Amino acid sequence: MATSTGSATDGATPVDELSYSDAGAELDGIIGEFETGVVDVDRLVEQLERATEIVDELDRRLRRTRMRVEELVPRLEAIGQSDGGEAGDAADDDEGLEDAESDALF
Questions:
Q1: Domain boundaries in the chain?
Q2: Is the entire prediction scored with pTM above 0.70?
């Protein structure tokens, strides 16, 4: 029996346990099967239910990720502004050191 996070396909990994790329690959496989026009009628509804579960789960993950990114980007920007460019200055210092080390070798 299928659950909201379970599987419509007997023995398949529950959708919420699949990695994003594995879920996408499985969805591509289901779509490919539909596109060939060779779909076992006995499995049609089962495959449609599984595809729907995968799409719902991937959409949830994308929305959650987008929200998290929208929370984190301002924090990173604030950190960059509070540093006052010190991170860039340190990188410039490292380049100068590398130049001096290469000059010393020749």
A1: 15-105
A2: no
